[in-house]
């Protein structure tokens, strides 16, 4: 499909620079085949049914943004995928000043050697020393806010909490699974009281999620791989929910993409441990999920293509036009949508 079909005009003031307080006070646009409804996130228990199951991504964002030097050259690096105990693939700013084997000094006693530049321009960075890389990043790194926020303000101490979900447990993401940022213990308790369960899986979100689609046709776009895991007990629970008449509602596109990657042609969700680069566009037949809660996404992005595949392109263009016209807040710190096909 032509990528232009997924374009829309978004006024810059619609981009949220801070999350709602409290988190579950964010607005929520409910999109169904019957139409649109304006709600808030704390209304979620009344929008779902007893027996439904929400599926969250329990990945934890690491401080994956690094600033360093190679000689007199300034080098910026955003880690996006782990390739070994001490090796991370990274997008590098000022990469033309790097050569294979160059050492980058990130300060605080943290250095890495650049190797193996890939076709997409990324480099493999091998971190020196014996300390776990996670400790090195805690010392020298910053929270990797999305470019549409970082370009408007500096990262600060609030972001260390604001950009983690209440489910964050497994370190490895360089972007938050932002739909889950709306959840609070009080909301989870209200969902439990309404008979709506929850489960977790892990998908370490990579910085590739923010890369623009440069191809003119979706068939020519290549997705970056991300590592994910669904254990056997969770797969069994998801299958049992659907077999019992409940719906599996993915919280976030990352949860959805992993569930769909783990689902076979018969609609059975299997245990999964490995990389996925699934790219979902209109025409895709969903096999493992029955709904999605997600934030509002960038124009021409793979994520807007995904929600259009779930609900229909015309319906999502209308929903986004409604959101823009009614002052919904967009992107990572913005408001939510609940998509129930």
UniProtKB/TrEMBL annotation:
Return the SUPFAM superfamilies for the record.
QueA-like
Catalytic EC class: transferase
GO BP of this protein: tRNA queuosine(34) biosynthetic process
- Keywords of this protein's UniProt record, alphabetized? Cytoplasm, Queuosine biosynthesis, S-adenosyl-L-methionine, Transferase
Which Pfam families does the UniProt entry name for this protein? Answer: Queuosine_synth
Q: Where in the cell is it found?
A: Cytoplasm
Cellular component GO terms, alphabetical: cytoplasm
Which GO MF terms are attached to this record? S-adenosylmethionine:tRNA ribosyltransferase-isomerase activity
Q: In UniProt terms, what function does this protein have?
A: Transfers and isomerizes the ribose moiety from AdoMet to the 7-aminomethyl group of 7-deazaguanine (preQ1-tRNA) to give epoxyqueuosine (oQ-tRNA).
Question: PANTHER family from the xrefs?
Answer: S-ADENOSYLMETHIONINE:TRNA RIBOSYLTRANSFERASE-ISOMERASE
Family according to the record: Belongs to the QueA family.
Q: How does it assemble?
A: Monomer.
**Record protein name field:** S-adenosylmethionine:tRNA ribosyltransferase-isomerase
């Amino acid at each position: 499909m032509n990528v232009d079909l997924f374009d829309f005009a978004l006024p810059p003031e619609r981009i949220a620079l801070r999350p709602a307080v409290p988190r579950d006070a964010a607005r929520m646009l409910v999109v169904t085949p019957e139409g649109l409804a304006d709600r808030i996130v704390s209304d979620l228990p009344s929008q779902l049914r007893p027996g439904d199951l929400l599926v969250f991504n329990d990945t934890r964002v690491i401080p994956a943004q690094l600033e360093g030097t190679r000689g007199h050259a300034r080098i910026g690096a955003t880690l996006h995928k782990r390739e070994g105990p001490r090796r991370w693939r990274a997008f590098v700013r000022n990469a033309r000043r790097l050569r294979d084997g160059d050492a980058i000094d990130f300060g605080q006693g943290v250095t890495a050697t650049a190797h193996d530049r890939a076709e997409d321009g990324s480099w493999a960075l091998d971190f020196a020393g014996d300390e776990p890389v996670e400790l090195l990043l805690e010392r020298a790194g910053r929270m990797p806010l999305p470019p549409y926020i970082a370009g408007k303000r500096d990262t600060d101490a609030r972001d260390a909490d604001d950009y983690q979900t209440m489910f964050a447990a497994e370190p490895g993401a360089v972007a938050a699974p932002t739909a889950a940022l709306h959840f609070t213990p009080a909301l989870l308790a209200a969902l439990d009281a309404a008979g709506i369960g929850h489960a977790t899986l892990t998908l370490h979100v990579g910085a590739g999620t923010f890369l623009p689609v440069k191809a003119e046709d979706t068939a020519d776009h290549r997705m970056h791989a991300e590592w994910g895991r669904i254990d056997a007990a969770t797969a069994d629970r998801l299958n049992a929910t659907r077999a019992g008449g409940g719906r599996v509602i993915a919280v976030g596109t990352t949860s959805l993409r992993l569930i769909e990657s783990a689902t076979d042609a018969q609609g059975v969700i299997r245990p999964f441990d490995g990389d996925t680069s699934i790219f979902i566009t209109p025409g895709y037949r969903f096999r493992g999920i029955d709904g999605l809660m997600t934030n509002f996404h960038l124009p021409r992005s793979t994520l807007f293509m995904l929600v259009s595949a779930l609900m229909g392109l015309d319906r999502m263009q209308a929903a986004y036009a409604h959101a823009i016209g009614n002052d919904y807040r967009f992107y990572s710190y913005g408001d939510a949508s609940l998509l129930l096909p």
